[in-house]
Amino acid sequence: MQFRALIDQAGDLDRDGRLARPPFSGGLSGATMQLAGAVGLVAGVLFLLWFSRSAANAQALGLPARREPAAGVAGFVIPVINLWWPYQSTCDLLPQGDARRSLVLRWFLLWMVGGFAGAIFSWVSIFVDGPTGWLVLALPAALTTLAALSARRVVSEVVAAHAALAPR
Fold first, then answer.
1. Is 21 exposed, middle or buried (0-12, 13-18, 19+ CB in 10 A)?
2. Segments forming the whole domain that contains residue 96
3. Residue 76, domain member (yes or no)
4. Most C-beta atoms within 10 A of its C-beta, which of 107, 134, 153, 163?
């Protein structure tokens, strides 16, 4: 009976006593959010596979690293240390003093800010209907896209650096 009183106070009942609209009916569809999550998961796994191989290559090329390749990969998924280990470990894929390390910083900042914005704005989009829900997600989507493009450039530069360091 208390639940019915809460619904009555919220004014969500129609004349027949049925819910006029289900709670949290606005926002983006669950399928859309799950598809975006699946794409992100696949991209993340592929990146971590590349990262693991690149860290092993950097180690074989004699580049100094703050941690072993497996620990560098784990740093992407362990809470709290994932706030700085990925940046450090990715910088370690390039020689010390290499100007391309600034690309790593750009990628990392876009990735972090995009991730935080995505988490907050995805939650907000649950409560926003239709096109406005999509607009709410525009900023984190743009940041995530820029982070992905930066990551692509970092990957290219790391591959080029390793190729230049590898014995012929």
1. exposed
2. 28-165
3. yes
4. 107
The pLDDT tens digits of the residues spanning 122-131 come to 788 777 777 7
Question: Do the domain assignments include residue 2?
Answer: no
Give me 21's structure tokens: 């609209």
Give the HSE-up count for residue 1: Cα atoms under 13 Å, Cβ half-sphere: 0
Q: What is the total count of domains within the chain?
A: 1
d(Cα 66, Cα 46) in Å, to the nearest integer?
23
Work out the average pLDDT over 136-162.
Answer: 92
- Tell me which residue of 96, 94, 56, 95 sits closest to 72, measured CA to CA: 56
Q: What is the pTM of this model?
A: 0.75
